[in-house]
Amino acid sequence: MEAVEHHAAETTELWRKISWYVCIPAIITCTAWVYNAEAEHNAHLDHLRAENDGHLPEAPTYDYLNRRVKPYPWGVNSLFFNPHAQKNLEDSA
C-alpha cells in the first residue's frame, strides 16, 4: 500500500509540473499568437474601410461564391455570420 501511495504522489507531482511548465506556457503562447493574428486582420479591414469611405469593398459576384441550394433554418447567412467581416446575404436575397 505504501508503494501505491508513493507512486500516486510521484505521478501527481509529474502532472502538476507538466501543467505548470508545459500546458500553461503553451496556452499563453497560443493566446498571444491568435490575438496578434486577429489584430492584423482587423487592421487590414480598417484599412480597406478607410480606402472605401467606411465600407468594405463589394465582393465579386462569381457564381460559385456563397452558393445556397436551400436556406439554413435560421436564414441565408451562416450560423457564425459576422456583419463586420462578411457579406450579408439577406440583402441580396
TrEMBL record:
A GO molecular-function descriptor: enzyme regulator activity
Keywords, alphabetical: Membrane, Mitochondrion, Mitochondrion inner membrane, Transit peptide
One Pfam match: COX6A
Gene Ontology terms: biological process: mitochondrial electron transport, cytochrome c to oxygen
Example of a GO cellular component annotation carried by this entry: mitochondrial inner membrane
Compartments in which it is found: Mitochondrion inner membrane
Domain of life: Eukaryota
Main location: mitochondrion
PANTHER family: CYTOCHROME C OXIDASE POLYPEPTIDE VIA, CYTOCHROME C OXIDASE SUBUNIT
Family stated for the protein in its record: Belongs to the cytochrome c oxidase subunit 6A family.
Name the UniProt record assigns to this protein: Uncharacterized protein
Lineage start: Eukaryota, Fungi, Dikarya, Basidiomycota, Agaricomycotina
